[in-house]
């Protein structure tokens, strides 16, 4: 579109975001120094409606953006130099500085802060267990043949897995097994660790050292266990206060979809595959039917160049995109820095 169409579209979108009311040409003339008459602005708005960027709820009303209008606004009209709320930066940095290695506390705090400052729902996927690198395994005898395996990754994720052995095993023997597993597998990605364990199991079939053989069998039990990923959500109340979210049935459907961890992990996996930094999904661009009335602004965060998790915001389509995109981008950078330098160690 030419510059004048872009300018009017941007004015309509930003006015509608601020007021939640259809925008008329006179309102734009009063608020913006466009150098155009109301009649000229009306004609341009009619052109934008014809092109599918604006819609009119009824003939006597002003106009409001369509999904296509929001999409064009996000792609072409947002100023890269948008300034973040200084309070958000200060508060988020403070939260991060006060958290050491506790991943859960870190993501709960960051998600809550992101929600509070964006007035939307904050959401974060913890460092994926399946993509993590193994730091160490501790085996603890519980009772009889039951053993607790505590698996700790370099990203600071901790998983407790209850294993049932065929026969009892002393704590002393378990400690030796842990020591061998850690020597063989520490620093491996969990996928590499799984492959190495399977290979070792076959290699050690006729091995004279029963400790090694048993360690590899236990390692295989641990590595093949399916582990549910953690999702952190903050700001249900923020979403409920949005004027565009008055349909309680739609809200309930959206909340149910968000609380389905497996479904959300699948969505975030799809987004991460795009490898494009901050991703904005508007309305029907969302892969879940229950979220067709929402927008998602999400970004992966990294540890030394590897994508390990996702942070983002979910809210109504009428969202303050420049501010939210900047917040999500800044938060992802914060988390990348913290995970690379602090959480889970520097290795």
Can you tell me about this structure?
With 347 residues, this protein is an alpha+beta fold. It folds into 3 domains: 3-77, Winged helix-like DNA-binding domain superfamily/Winged helix DNA-binding domain (Arc Repressor Mutant, subunit A, Orthogonal Bundle); 86-127 and 229-341, GAF domain (Beta-Lactamase, 2-Layer Sandwich), CATH 3.30.450.40; 130-223, Heat-inducible transcription repressor hrca homolog, domain 3 (Enolase-like, domain 1, 2-Layer Sandwich). Helices cover 49% and strands 18% of the residues. It is built from 13 helices and 10 strands. The chain has helices at 3-19, 25-31, 38-50, 67-77, 86-98, 103-118, 171-185, 190-203, 210-223, 236-240, 248-259, 261-273, 321-341; strands spanning 54-55, 64-65, 121-125, 134-143, 146-153, 158-164, 231-234, 279-282, 294-303, 306-316. The protein has a 5-stranded antiparallel β-sheet with strand order 7-3-10-9-8, with helices on both faces. A 3-stranded antiparallel β-sheet has the order 4-5-6, with helices on one face. Helix 1 packs across helix 3 (38-50), helix 1 crosses helix 4 (67-77) and helix 5 (86-98) runs antiparallel to helix 6. The longest helix has 21 residues, at 321-341.
